[in-house]
Amino acid sequence: MPFIYQPQKEKKLSITPSFADSSHIINSYAGEWTSIGENNHIIESTFGDYTYTMDDVTVNYAEIGKFCSIASHVCINPVQHPMDRVSQHHMTYRKVAYDFANEDDEALFNWRRTQTVKIGHDVWIGHGAIIMKGVEIGTGAVVGSGSVVTKNVEPYTIVVGVPGKPIKRRFSKEVADRLLEIAWWDWPRKKLEAHFDELNDLDAFLKKHG
Asked: 3-17 burial, b if ≥16 CB within 10 A, otherwise e?
């Protein structure tokens, strides 16, 4: 019997965040029109409006802006082990699970919380990229697939490689600064709808709002 391809119907989103049942999420927040994909592992992170993740994404202690596109197998802020101890195994701080104590090592978890990753608006993070602790990625930036980002990324800059290095700007500094000033990602839904088609035409957009 021949195989018949039937494309999946696009899932309709709404102002209520969408979470895949297979995802594991702890103490996190997602804004309107957000979508969290299958098998995500998310700890103490925030997602701005319209941001989405694909499958098998890990996010720890991160602040992510609006309209971000996060591809599958991305890892944002992989947690650090205590390398200064005799053993760096997590039994030394997840003591309860191993029946070594009645309480876990909260000091270590609090330290991890100080290493927040901050990602601006309209950032595209490619398949399998890793964003290391404490990194800030500017609005409009692109992180290439498989990159390991260890340093801050300027707005509207494309970074690739291991470690991630800037290879080009998406737009000139003048255009990037103008877009940052316009801040279309903060527009209310009605204004976004009214100017939606302009988002596909940079020249028309800047002429209209510049």
From this structure: eeeeeeeeeeeeeeb
